[in-house]
């Protein structure tokens, strides 16, 4: 029994190396999204008294990085910029084994300590926590590196791959549950059932459309055609949950539809950091981790060629003087 189970596990992890730039790209997107949120907002935006909350920053079950200093905006702003620097280091891909814990701690700290208005910080906290086993078993110096191809897999690497693939499966289940819960919650609200929810959301005074877009889309929002984006959202989110059970060959179609959906949200509502975090989660959900993206290698190769060309021109100019 155990021999058969071990053989199945070995065949499963032999499908490819899970430590590719796919999970690295997702880490970078989440880190950049949180870095943008922290960089473009003063500490007073995140940490302030609220209804029923007199002290700030809030304290979660575990102490956050913003709880390490006195509740002064001077100190909190210093910590905020320290977090931005660390997050940029995470996004660079350097030493995922070292930076992954700091990445989760910052995401957790922002979610538990700050007063926020969207769910991006919560998703980032969950995703960075689930990414810990993958990053901690990644022995590369940079998460952009192409993993070495080996004909044989050592026993210790088999165990590491099992940890990584089990974690990736857990991430897929978690992202599917996010869309399932979102759909179920919407179905309990009459405005989603009657097809008018998008009208109310896009006209919300805090999170709604900017004036220019509102004027352009108002003829649609005030007509019966508003049911198309409203029910379309429900259908798409249901399909994304169902993608958990879809063949791997069909994942790219779900991914394209989901990316279009979230980028539309970013464009219309300005929820850029939330959309980036969801895009990162969708990549982990709907792009095979063992199939690395080709564009990072092309980008670095092009950058290296351009840099070498600049140095050569500089050397030639100096020699001709």
TrEMBL record:
The keyword Transmembrane applies. It is found in: Endomembrane system. GO terms for cellular component: endomembrane system. The keyword Cell inner membrane does not apply. It is a multi-pass membrane protein. The chain crosses the membrane at residues 29-51, 71-91, 162-180, 220-245, 265-286. Keywords: Membrane, Transmembrane, Transmembrane helix. This is HTTM-like domain-containing protein. It comes from Kyrpidia spormannii. The lineage of its organism: Bacteria, Bacillati, Bacillota, Bacilli, Bacillales.
């Amino acid at each position: 029994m155990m021999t058969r189970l071990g053989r199945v596990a070995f065949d499963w992890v032999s499908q490819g190396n899970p430590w590719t730039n796919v999970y690295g790209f997702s880490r970078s997107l989440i880190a950049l999204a949180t870095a943008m949120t922290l960089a473009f907002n003063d500490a007073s935006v995140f940490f302030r008294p609220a209804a029923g909350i007199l002290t700030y920053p809030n304290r979660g079950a575990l102490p956050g990085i913003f709880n390490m200093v006195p509740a002064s905006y001077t100190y909190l702003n210093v910590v905020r910029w320290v977090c931005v620097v660390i997050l940029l280091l995470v996004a660079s891909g350097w030493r995922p084994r070292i930076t992954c814990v700091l990445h989760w701690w910052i995401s957790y700290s922002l979610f538990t300590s700050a007063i926020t208005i969207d769910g991006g910080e919560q998703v980032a906290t969950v995703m960075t926590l689930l990414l810990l086993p993958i990053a901690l078993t990644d022995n590369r110096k940079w998460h952009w590196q192409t993993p070495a191809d080996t004909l044989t897999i050592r026993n210790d690497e088999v165990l590491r791959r099992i940890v990584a693939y089990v974690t990736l499966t857990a991430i897929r289940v978690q992202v599917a549950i996010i869309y399932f819960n979102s759909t179920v919650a919407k179905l309990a609200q009459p405005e989603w059932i009657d097809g008018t929810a998008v009208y109310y959301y896009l006209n919300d005074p805090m999170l709604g459309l900017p004036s220019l877009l509102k004027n352009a889309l108002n003829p649609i929002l005030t007509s019966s055609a508003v049911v198309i984006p409203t029910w379309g959202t429900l259908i798409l989110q249901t399909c994304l949950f169902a993608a958990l059970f879809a063949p791997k060959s069909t994942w790219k179609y779900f991914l394209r539809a989901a990316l279009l959906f979230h980028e539309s949200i970013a464009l219309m509502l300005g929820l850029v950091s939330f959309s980036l975090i969801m895009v990162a989660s969708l990549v982990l959900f709907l792009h095979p981790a063992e199939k690395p993206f080709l564009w990072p290698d092309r980008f670095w190769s092009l950058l290296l060629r351009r840099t070498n060309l600049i140095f050569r021109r500089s050397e030639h100019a100096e020699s001709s003087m």
